Amino acid sequence: MTRSGSSDAEDAEGAARPPARAESPPVHAEPPSGHAEPSSAHAEPVERERELALLSDLVERVAGGLPGLVLVEGPDGIGKTTLLRSLAERARARGLRVLQARCEPAEREASFAVLHRLLGPVLEKDAPWCGVAAGPVPNLLSCDNVIAPDLPYGVLTELFRVVRRASAPAPLVLVVDDAESADPASLRFLAHTARRLAGLPVLLAVSRCPGTEVAPLDELAAQPLCQVLRPRPLTERGIGLIARRVTGSTADEDFLRACLSATNGSPLLVTRLLAALHREGRPPTAGELARTHPRDTALLGRRVVEMLRRQPVTTLRAARAMAVLGEGAPDDLCAALALVDPAVFAQAVQALAALHLVTPPLGTAEWTFAHCLVRKAVLADMSQQQRTSAHRRAARLLHDRGAPAEQVAEHLLRSGAPAVEPWARAVLRETARAAVRREAYEHAVELLRRCLPEDPGTAADPELLVDLGLAQIRLGSEEGIEHLMQALPRLTDPERRLTALTALVGALVQAGRVPRAWELVRCHRQETDEAGEEPTGAQLLEAHLVLASHGNHQAFRQLLDTASFDLDLPGDTPGERALLAVRAVIRTSRLDRVAESVAAARTVLARGIPPTDTPGALGTAAVVLLYADLPDEAEAAFRRLAGRADVTGEMQYAALLALWADACQRQGAVDRALATSATALEGAPPEHTGSYHALAAAMRLHALLDRGEEAGAAALADRIPVPGPGSGWQWNEYLAARGRLRLAEGDARSALADLTEAGERQRAWQRLSPAVSPWWYWAGRAHAALGDTAACGALAEETVAAARSGGLPCALGAGLELLAVAHGGRRALPLLEEAETVLADTPAALALTRVRISRGRALHALGHTQAARKVLRQALETAYALDAGPLYGEARQALLATGARPRRPVSRGPAALTRSELQVARLAAEGRSNLEIAEELFVTQRTVETHLTSVYRKLGLTGRRGLRAALTGTDASLPPGSGGEEPGHMTSTGRDPADNFASWQTD
């Protein structure tokens, strides 16, 4: 494979670079003491005793069946590659299987480039252990539609299974050098594997340069198992040892001090400097060193240039061709670019190897530069005109040989000149389309700019302008608007024109130019009417305009004054359904005609036909249900949408997952909310948190607090930046969640500040319905914590009135509970009874549990002890089933206060399952669907889902897979404390009346 990039890794202390191919034999070129020139004999790295001892311990640990994880971190030339090679040699000597890969910057855009080399041996048919890697992974690695960073979790799981199966015959060592240069897909695999090493005889060793902010590597380094090695620069003693190895003589102290000052203790520079002195017959003395005036890596560059200029012209041309094409380029291609015969090129490679500038091919390995600095020095010695000409000729040679478009385009870019020839423009545009598919928009813009005419007065191809404008708009550049405006009058294809219009309208809205966007929509509608065409395109365009306004508050306010929100459309076409969805969500948020909006949303979801109806339209309809207190219906819609292949783009997928997490959290499905929000936040750097990542962070904060993980919630909040005043509505939800966190931490004043700001922002965005966000509930709680029951009561009364008018049962129940908090005493009890009645018919399990705890306390305060115990037992059962730790603790303390003594639950394993959970689990293990289980046990599907969630948690599972094995050997009898009810009996709430944790002893 030809690699046109250069690696940042190094081989220090005279050791030559190993081939990039995995499972390759080690190559040693470190000179032993007494040899005049570096040889192939092996020598231990200098002043690395501590590092080598730790690596040896890791090898022994893995050989004993335990996992290991090590990160070697340091700058170029410090010896990271040498340490990894030493680790590989020790592992091989111990009989372990070693797989190696070195990362190249040029391959960052190629998904799985590193994994191809790392796992290649266990996937090749001729590998002796190929039987253990049977499965779908070869297809996964070659699948073009698997593009990082939106890598499906299932792909990561299958790849990890390859590692697990490969480690079954013998312990496995995975070595990845220069990991900061790896492609995103491979980086996610490394982080995924690092989290799951427990119990496997696998050692994962990774190196990287410091200062490279790569989230998966940071995550890898943060693993408890990970040991981080940071090799230090050489001391004068270490330089003296290398001097004896390279030159066979002892260097004086003045030389050692001068060499340390010149090289900063870099083993690579020290070795190259000494080798250069020795080749010229100059002794290692301070005087000789002073005459060379070394400072840093420029010394190596000068030495490379000087050596090359003393070689025959064919050798110089060969070196330049190799530098232009990159490591591993085929010999015949290099020869063609150098304008020499293949035989002459082979001789030139041997000559360069004799100069220790390249490593010649050994066996099946490819030639490599001794260090990336060598290649840089060769390129720097070429003039700009020479580099431009060489890269353009390289591009043409690769194109004529049928090389991938990406490889050809890289040389066209490096040439620095505009693409004039039609073949070059075609290659650049093809590569740009591939970059857009993987969301590398900056790269796409760079490629497409090279296709524009040099003369500003020459009209560019409208299709090119559309491609360029679409990519620029994705980057938020207003230049994309101008390019689309230039292309629009000359576009003739209706679909292409609608695509350009859609992007243009959205960009204009985001830029605050709403009138101009409306003008384009009206013009398109008029053109459609005059042509006698269906209005679907114009309707889709208007719907997109409305949706786009949700990212710009000023545009949104303008839209409210100009757009129609009529819900009388029949919903027969995709355009009508898209308009119904966006109009309904705004009406629902404003607490306007909620019932009609719900009906419109159900029409959209019932009649929507993928892929005719876009995920945006169907997802918006699901949000209507979410904001109408129907989270179970909304979750079902989000789940269906998440499985669609046409849900494209990081932001669209993150938004869908965040809203799905919201629906789960409202139902008390804390595990699902945590898992979904974690997926939405994967790969999102905290400092670049976007609007929908902020929404996912908000949902995760709520779920963590529901679980009782305050520390995790605080850690997440600390990583998220403070939202600005003009940020999108999604940040309102984050402020509300952060306010709830502050309240849980006991800082009611800070909590109230966040929650009050969240409420003000919600009103500014016309998100007036109490079902949209719970900010008001936690603000009322904060007022109550500060003793301001009047303010708490005012919020509660406003909410109750709004919820009654909009028919919002979940918001009504929570509002009644908050009103009870404000009133207290006997006035609270009827409010709580109504709240419980209202919430009992909703999926809002957490809200119902809070109400029951409050009602139980109120009953006990009024002397109704038995009634209080009954209500609190129900609250305790539900809190336990939902794994809601704080509510479970509150319910238990309130129950203890009544004199009851609840038995502590068995929290894990089959013995922890209640009878109802065991019944549901066994039926699920037999392959029954949720609907079939519900019909057999005469319960609702929601009850079945609740039981299965609890079963998975208690058995340590993530889904049905493994359920049968986990239940194998389970006694058919009922679990302890399950009572003597008839088999199959469940209460109306779906819980056993005598769960093993709900056996009471009362005084």
Automatic annotation (TrEMBL):
Instruction: Give an example GO biological process.
Output: regulation of DNA-templated transcription
Give the matching SUPFAM superfamilies.
C-terminal effector domain of the bipartite response regulators, P-loop containing nucleoside triphosphate hydrolases, TPR-like
Q: Does the keyword ATP-binding apply?
A: yes
PROSITE patterns per record: HTH_LUXR_1, HTH_LUXR_2
What is any Pfam family matched here? AAA_16
GO CC terms: cytoplasm
GO molecular function terms attached to this record? adenylate cyclase activity; ATP binding; DNA binding
Record Gene3D superfamilies: P-loop containing nucleotide triphosphate hydrolases, Tetratricopeptide repeat domain, Winged helix-like DNA-binding domain superfamily/Winged helix DNA-binding domain
Sorted alphabetically, the keyword list is: ATP-binding, Nucleotide-binding
Where in this protein does the record put region Disordered? 1-49, 968-1003
Which intervals hold domain HTH luxR-type? Answer: 906-971
PANTHER family the UniProt entry points to: TESTICULAR SOLUBLE ADENYLYL CYCLASE, TRANSCRIPTIONAL ACTIVATOR DOMAIN
* Name the UniProt record assigns to this protein: HTH luxR-type domain-containing protein
Q: What is the lineage of its organism?
A: Bacteria, Bacillati, Actinomycetota, Actinomycetes, Kitasatosporales
